[in-house]
Amino acid sequence: MSTMSVLAVDLPYWAQSLLRVLGGLVAVLLPAGTIVYVFLFKMMSFMQSRLGPMEAGPFGSMQLFAEVGKWLQKEDIYPERADKFIFKLAPLIVLASTFLLVAVVPFGPDAWFTNFEAGIFYALAVSSVSVLGILIAGWASANKYSLLGGLRAAGQLIAYELPMILAVIGVVIQAGSMNLQDIVLAQNTGSMFGWDGLGNPYVLTQFVGFVVFMIAVQAELTQAPFDMPIAESELVSGYMTEYSGFRFLIFFIGEFATAGVFAMIASILFLGGWGVPFAWFGWSDIDSIDNWMNIVGPLILFTKMMLVVFVIMWVRFSYPRFREDQLQRFAWKVLIPISLVNIMVTAILKVAF
Amino acid sequence: MLAADLLVAQNIGFGIIAVIMVVGALRVVTTSNVVHAALWLVTVLAGAAAQYVLLAAEFVAVTQVLVYIGAVMVLFLFGTMLTRARIGSEKEVNNKNWFMGVPIAVLLLATMLIALNDGFGSEELPADPDTLVNTQMISDQIFGPYLLPFWALSFVLLAAVIGAIVLARRD
Question: If you measure CA to CA, which chain A residue comes closest to B89?
Answer without folding.
Answer: A83
